[in-house]
C-alpha cells in the first residue's frame, strides 16, 4: 500500500498525559498537512510542512501541540498535557510539489482523552 | 477569510434515486480551487474532484457530476442512480492560490448521505 499511513489508528489516554502520532506520507510528496476533525464537523487545518520546513501553524495549534518533519519524510504530531477537548480525529495528508494538486489523506488517528 | 457552507446536514434517499449535495463558498481570491471528498465510515477522506476558478465547465464521471457556478459561488455535486455504497459523509472544500500555506483546504461541515436499499 503506497498511500498515506498513520499510526496509531486509535489512542485512548488519560488527561494530562502526552501522546505522539506518526504520519508517513506518499513517498514522492513534499507537502504534508495535519488536520483535526471533531465529531460532525469538517476537518480543520492545523499545520503545513513543505519538505522539513513547517511553514504555517493554525491558531488551533496551541503551545501544547508540536509537529515535526525531520528530513522531510515522516511527520510526528505531539500533544502535551492532553485535555478532554483534544479528543478528535487527527488526519494527515500529503500532496505533490505542484500547486493545488489534490491532497491524499490517511485514515487518521482517533484520540480519546478520558 | 474563506468559508464553505454545506447547508444539508443529512440526506436520506432510496437506492436508484438521484441526489444533489449543495456547496456554497466564500473567498476574496480570484484564483482558487474547489474539491469534493468522500469520507466512508472507515474515516479516510477519498478525493473525488478538483476544479479551478477559471474552469466553469461542468464535469461528469460515471454516476457523478459536478455543477460549478461562479455567479452563485456554488459547486454542487449530483449522484445519479444512487447506490448503497454511496452512503458516506461528503465534504466540499476550498483552497486559495498557493502561498505560504501551501494548498491548505477549508472544509464545509459535510453532508451525511444515507442510501437505503
Offer a quick outline of the entry:
The complex is a heterodimer of chains A (114) and B (117). By secondary structure, chain A is mostly beta strands.
Structural notes for this entry:
The complex is a heterodimer of chains A (114) and B (117). By secondary structure, chain A is mainly β. Chain A is built from no helices and eleven strands. In chain A, the strands form two sheets. In chain A, strands 2, 4, 5, 6, 9, 10 and 11 form a seven-stranded mixed beta sheet that branches. In chain A, strand 7 (65-68) and strand 8 (75-79) form a beta hairpin. The radius of gyration of chain A is 13 Å and the shape is globular. The mean pLDDT of chain A is 93. Chain B is mainly β and 117 residues long. Chain B is built from no helices and twelve strands. In chain B, strands 2, 5, 6, 10, 11 and 12 form a six-stranded mixed beta sheet that branches. In chain B, a hairpin with a 4-residue loop joins strand 8 and strand 9 (74-79). The N and C termini of chain B lie far apart (41 Å). The A-B interface holds A 31, 33, 35, 40-45, 48, 50, 55-56, 89, 91, 93, 95, 99-108, 110 and B 4, 33, 35, 37, 42-47, 50, 52, 91, 93, 95, 97-98, 100-110.
Low-confidence stretches of chain B: none
Backbone structural class of chain A: mainly beta
Low-pLDDT parts of chain A are: none
Protein chain pair with the most extensive contact, residues per chain:
A-B, 28 and 28 residues
* Beta strands of chain A, count: 11
Count of helical stretches of chain B: 0
Shape of chain A: globular
| Helix-strand sequence of chain B | EEEEEEEEEEEE
Give the C-alpha Rg of chain B.
14 Å
The share of residues in extended strands of chain B comes to over 45%
How are the SSEs placed, and which strands pair?
The complex is a heterodimer of chains A (114) and B (117).
Chain A: E1 5-7, E2 10-13, E3 19-24, E4 31-37, E5 44-50, E6 53-57, E7 65-68, E8 75-79, E9 88-95, E10 104-105, E11 109-113
Parallel strand pairs in A: 2-11
Antiparallel strand pairs in A: 1-3, 3-8, 4-5, 4-9, 5-6, 7-8, 9-10, 9-11
Chain B: E1 3-5, E2 10-14, E3 19-21, E4 24-26, E5 32-39, E6 46-52, E7 59-61, E8 64-69, E9 74-79, E10 88-96, E11 106-107, E12 111-116
Parallel strand pairs in B: 2-12
Antiparallel strand pairs in B: 1-4, 3-9, 5-6, 5-10, 7-8, 8-9, 10-11, 10-12
Amino acid at each position: 500500500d503506497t498511500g498515506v499511513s498513520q499510526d496509531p489508528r486509535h489512542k485512548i489516554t488519560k488527561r494530562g498525559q502526552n501522546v505522539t502520532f506518526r504520519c508517513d506520507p506518499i513517498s514522492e510528496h513534499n507537502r504534508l498537512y495535519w488536520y483535526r476533525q471533531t465529531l460532525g464537523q469538517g476537518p480543520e487545518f492545523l499545520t503545513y510542512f513543505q519538505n522539513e520546513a513547517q511553514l504555517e501553524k493554525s491558531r488551533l495549534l496551541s503551545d501544547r501541540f508540536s509537529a515535526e518533519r525531520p528530513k522531510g519524510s515522516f511527520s510526528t504530531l505531539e500533544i502535551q498535557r492532553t485535555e478532554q477537548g483534544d479528543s478528535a480525529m487527527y488526519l494527515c495528508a500529503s500532496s505533490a510539489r505542484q500547486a493545488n494538486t489534490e491532497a491524499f489523506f490517511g485514515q487518521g488517528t482517533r484520540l480519546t482523552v478520558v | 477569510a474563506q468559508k464553505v457552507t454545506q447547508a444539508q446536514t443529512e440526506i436520506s434517499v432510496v437506492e436508484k434515486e438521484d441526489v444533489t449535495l449543495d456547496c456554497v463558498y466564500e473567498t476574496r481570491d480570484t484564483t482558487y480551487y474547489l474539491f469534493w471528498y468522500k469520507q466512508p465510515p472507515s474515516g479516510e477522506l477519498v478525493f473525488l474532484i478538483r476544479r479551478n476558478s477559471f474552469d466553469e465547465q461542468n464535469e461528469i464521471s460515471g454516476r457523478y457530476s459536478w455543477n460549478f457556478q461562479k455567479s452563485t459561488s456554488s459547486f454542487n455535486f449530483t449522484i445519479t442512480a444512487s447506490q448503497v455504497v454511496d452512503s458516506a459523509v461528503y465534504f466540499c472544500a476550498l483552497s486559495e492560490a498557493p502561498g505560504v500555506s501551501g494548498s491548505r483546504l477549508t472544509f464545509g461541515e459535510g453532508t451525511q448521505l444515507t442510501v437505503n436499499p
